[in-house]
Amino acid sequence: MAKPLSHGFVREIRVEKPSLANNTSDAGRLEQSLKKQLETDYVRMPLHLLKNLPTRLRQSDFRAKVVLFKDPYQWVLLDIINPEDGITPLGIAIDIGTTRIVLNLVNLETGDILGEKGFDNPQAQIGPDVLARIHHSNQPEGLDSLHKLVIDSVNSHIGDLCRDQGFKRQDVFLITGAGNTAMTHLFLGIESYEIIKEPYIPCVNVPNSVEARELGLDINSRGYAFLFPNIGSYFGGDLISGILFARLHEKENPCIMVDVGTNAEIVVGSREWLIACAGAAGPALEGGVSKIGMTAKPGVIERVQIDPEAGSLEIKTIEDQPAIGICGSGMIDLAACLFLTGMIDIRGKFSKPRCKDRLFEKDGIDYFILVDEKNSGTDGPICLNQVDLNSLTSSKAAMYTILEVIVNNTAGLAFEDLAKFYVAGTFGSFIDPRSAISIGMLPEMGLERFEVLGNSSLGGATMLLTDASAFEQILEIRKSITYIELNVNQEFMNMFSGAKFYPHTDRSRFPSVKIMV
Fold this sequence. Notes:
This protein is α/β, with parallel strands linked by helices. It has helices at 26-38, 47-50, 53-59, 130-137, 142-164, 181-188, 212-215, 237-246, 328-340, 352-355, 386-410, 425-430, 433-438, 456-466, 470-480, 490-496, and strands at residues 10-14, 43-44, 63-70, 75-81, 90-96, 100-107, 113-120, 172-179, 210-211, 224-227, 255-260, 263-269, 274-280, 300-306, 313-317, 325-326, 359-362, 365-371, 382-385, 421-424, 450-454, 481-483.
């Protein structure tokens, strides 16, 4: 039998055998063993577990493997397993993204990640964004349909993931999930309409652990599920999960974490304090806003580089397929290359003398040919137009301004004071910090201070499955965060206009950025 994690949710125990000298009840002796090992005053034992407890203890000769969870402060005993049965208790960690959902299958005894599976959020068939889904949830049976879509899809992929690794879904005892506030409500089947109405109030900020079957999750009948708490309508459990994963709350020196999707969500701080904010800074990087923008898949441009000798652009697509569009990391690279070669000026406007025959005009709008028709994987050339470039300029300016407000104006720090700059989510997985610095999207800092976290929401949910103490950390993180509202922040609006230039109106902030011509 694998050695359980000393701080995990699966423990090996020995229960004192009954005798005339010790005629305490079976449940009492079991509770004593658990309280001693867990260093707690109370362990809750559900009725279903007590019904055949005497038989199960004696079948295993009073040795057992126990599966536990928290609710959220008190310990709950979920099941007792005979060590000879060969059962490996499993957990599922879920990143409940608006666009995409990702699962990790975790061995609860060892903490090993056994497999990962990602899939598109099926709620997108009802609405592509949070707002559309919440409006649908307020229609008759709308909430139930959204809840059922996501639960049925998660159940299906849990089954596939277990089967792929040689397990059964009944081996899954625990589920931890993290998502934004709206996705958390819809996953739990909770009314969410008030989130989008002034004064923007969620139904719940700290949901308790719940029996998995109550949510319709098809795992072990005694399994439990827990979703990370949120701060409010616009700061969800996915960010708290990210803080846990980055261990931002344990840092001696101030660090910053940035997660950019439709919104930019930012946390800065250390073990002493945490300040957070969210603001619109990502629309130009999302598929559907730019005509050529799309999420990552074969043929999507993910990298754009400059040939230093010829001054020409070189592109790389996913799986080296003919180009069909461009994703966020490619878009940032492209803007950096255009600026550094002088093809766009400091205002983010195309330069006709520098672009030459790559630039053409249609309906009064300039178009830059990134991939010509003969090399494109579509029916025509891949082009970036001035309107899309303006959108990217606004997004990069908003991103930098948000960072400036929270770091300089709110926390009273300089960017140089930050020990680490963590970038999370899809944005953080693929962005080249040099490109983001070149356009003035991220502050100029030593590249060694940038650290890619990848899917920090999934990472934090996975950590919770392997470390029972994370429950208390999560709740402490939530209580320690000071949230600032940017929508009413006048400083933001004042600084935003300066950041709309490349890289900024104050060039001294970006001394390393040099135009090649």
